[in-house]
Specification:
Length: 89
Amino acid sequence: MYQIIQTKPNLNALDVHNKEFSTRVLGCDRDQVNEFIDTVIKDYEFFDKTIKQLKRENEELRIAQQLQENNLIDRVRELEIAQWGRSKG
């Protein structure tokens, strides 16, 4: 059985902010709903910033890892030349 993996959120902070609800006679306290929505919006903004920061850090680490791998390959070649007069690769 296949599992569907969600790749992006269904809502963003602006969607939550702009959401309108119909009213009923015995509905919820509008101020409590608005306070809760404000909290949800702040959380969405925080998560969005965190995800962007982590993506940047991930890319920086990927680049650093690639540089280290390249430096290691160069060093091995240098050692091969020093040991055998030529590189094996």
